[in-house]
Amino acid sequence: MKVGELGEDQIVATLIEGLASSQQVLVGPGDDCAVIEAPEGLILLKTDAVVEGIHFLSEENPKRVGWKAVARVLSDFAAMGGVPKELLVTLAISKSSSVAWVKELYEGMAGCLKKHGGVIVGGETTSIPDGSPAMISIAGKGQVQREHLVTRSGGVVGDGIYVTGHLGGSLAGHHLDFNPRIEQAAWLVENVKPSAMMDLSDGLAKDLPRLAKMSGCGFQLQLDALPCREGCSLENALGDGEDYELLFTSESHSELIKGWQRVFPGVRLTKIGELVLEEGQSIPGGWDHFRAEDSSLE
Amino acid sequence: MKVGELGEDQIVATLIEGLASSQQVLVGPGDDCAVIEAPEGLILLKTDAVVEGIHFLSEENPKRVGWKAVARVLSDFAAMGGVPKELLVTLAISKSSSVAWVKELYEGMAGCLKKHGGVIVGGETTSIPDGSPAMISIAGKGQVQREHLVTRSGGVVGDGIYVTGHLGGSLAGHHLDFNPRIEQAAWLVENVKPSAMMDLSDGLAKDLPRLAKMSGCGFQLQLDALPCREGCSLENALGDGEDYELLFTSESHSELIKGWQRVFPGVRLTKIGELVLEEGQSIPGGWDHFRAEDSSLE
Questions:
Q1: For residue A115, what are the domain limits?
Q2: Which of A11, A53, A97 is nearest residue B129 as measured by Cβ atoms?
Q3: How far is CA B203 from CA A5, B128, B235, B282, B288, in A?
Q4: Are A127 and A173 within one domain?
Q5: What pLDDT, on a 0 to 100 scale, did the predictor assign at position A292?
Q6: For the domain that residue A259 is a member of, what is the CATH number?
Q7: In a mutagenesis test of the A interface, which of B86, B97, B202 is the best target, namely the one with the most A β-carbons within 10 Å?
Q8: What is the pLDDT of residues B223-239, one digit of tens each?
Q9: Nearest C-alpha of chain B: how many angstroms from A116?
């Protein structure tokens, strides 16, 4: 069987089977980050790659590509309630790549880290055959206070489902220059204590069922409440992907959105549904790395 | 300018310039691993990738490929005197890859970790265009006791230069099934306290000058002492690369090799030279990821 026939979630599930674990691993594969016990708190580990022709176009400004590569990992730290610490950069490029391109790529990475935290402490540059797509893989260590950790699996029936920002149409530019929601996540874990949280990378249609499933719940989605980006349809908001917004669940209370608006007047927060008892709902749309038939950017 | 004209060490030096650092970063880019301060000791961070057609052939047994991908990272932990803890796996493969191949790859990785320590806690599987070479990138966290840390930069004029095992001819099979020298490194940091250490991945001709330079020394190499693998020439031992043996420096004393032989009778330890005052020697040969003109495996 080909991996394209199996689909991403099933491949991951297959690979996780039979992996050894350790007492220090609090959260293993399947969440936004792995979580490791340490005396001073919890360590977050995450790796994420962008590939030329899939996550960015060859002619794209390398600064924007570098920003995106790093911001995706930071978005995952935010999704656990944490902050970035040290990062490693793996660069797979051909010998004919220009040095100027690589330097600008690093400038983009450094720019994102300067704004949102974290430092590059090493990495590797490896050559690939000419004509192969360039790949930038970022591995990062983050940290989160024990009482602030939020996973995908803590949602409870009756919790409200919330999403930050706007959804859809990321390909117009947002997928390259978004700000990972580090600051917003820090406020949420301090003030709201979400029961479950993740970042939206594959589209709400794909990601919400994942969160609900890991929380052992179903969901009821209020389609007319979705915060569609200007010019975007519901279909865009559900399926385009690469929103890099926070999706979280929490006991609903009227003060939540009011409190948020006082601190983040420029970022929308929207209640889009509720966790319910019956599991197994699905939403048409969303991105699968291996099943997608089109060649649009992810 | 193309990266192929600049060469690997120079590219890394260029990229390191201008990176921010942090107080918690004890060792940044340029050593086998980055070293991060933590209350319970020191954290090692490392990332390393293998690419189809460069580090392994397409028709290679995927179990051996998985073993190699993981063993390379473990070898870097050993080089700092440390042990592996948690690893992340980034797999970039096309949709037409077979699920069986991926499963066997993971079996190989798990086999190496079972023998030498460490667990896989997550990662990512991303699709690349059909026909692009597969890439397996392993990011890992290790740890080392503060008093056991060895870097590349601690060598002192007059120290003996030592190497474990045999050198050269790795392509015949060693590069796929080697055992990272975790156990040997643990014995060395406990009993010998090397002044500097690294693992040999690009060949002695490339790697020894790196260690000497970071220690602010030159070196005198006894070519006739090199432990060439059976059937290998001096040129092979210097330049083939992928030996994954430990290269370290230490005050010379007669008990060192005797003590080693009692504990590791099956693994050779050889004194191959001395650190000297005058810097800047070079040795012909060795592997450069971007300058190599041939297409042999690295």
A1: 43-146
A2: A53
A3: 42, 31, 10, 13, 10
A4: no
A5: 47
A6: 3.90.650.10
A7: B86
A8: 999 999 999 999 999 99
A9: 13
pLDDT digits (tens, 9 = 90+) for B122-157: 988 888 888 899 999 999 999 999 999 999 999 999
Nearest to B73 by CA among B117, B134, B103: B117
For the sheet containing A269-276, what is the strand order?
A196-199, A246-250, A160-164, A269-276, A218-221
Q: Which residues of B touch A45 (CB under 8 A)?
A: 86, 88, 121-122, 139, 141
Say whether B250 sits in a helix, a strand or coil: strand
Q: How many Å lie between the alpha carbon of A22 and the closest alpha carbon of chain B?
A: 7
Kindly report the length of chain A. Answer: 298
Number of domains making up chain B: 1
Helix A182-191 crosses helix A254-263 at what angle (to 10 degrees)? 140
| Residue B94 domain flag | no
Name chain A contacts of B129, Cβ cutoff 8 Å. 53-54, 133
Q: Other C-beta atoms within 10 Å of A225: how many?
A: 12
Flag the least confident range among A44-58, A109-123, B121-135, B264-278: B121-135
- Residue A294's pLDDT is 39
Q: Is there a domain that residue A153 lies in? A: no
Q: For residue A186, tell me if it sits in a domain.
A: yes
Q: Residues 120 to 159 of A: which have CB under 8 A from any B CB?
A: 120-129, 132-133, 135, 137, 139, 141
Interface list for B 67-106 with A (CB within 8 A):
85-86, 88-90, 92-93, 95-100, 102-103, 106
Q: How far is CA A230 from the centre of its chain?
A: 22
Asked if B33 and B46 count as a contact pair (C-beta separation under 8 A), the reply is: yes
Strand spans (E) along A132-202: 135-144, 160-164, 196-199
> Order of strands, edge to edge, in the sheet holding A34-38?
A25-27, A34-38, A41-51, A135-144, A83-93, A119-127
Cβ-based neighbour number of residue A131 at 10 Å: 9
Q: Are residues A185 and A243 located together in one domain of the fold?
A: yes
B143 neighbors B33 (Cβ within 8 angstroms):
no
Number of residues that this document lists for chain B: 298
**Residue A33 forms part of a structural domain:** no
Interchain contact, A289 vs B34, CB within 8 Å: no
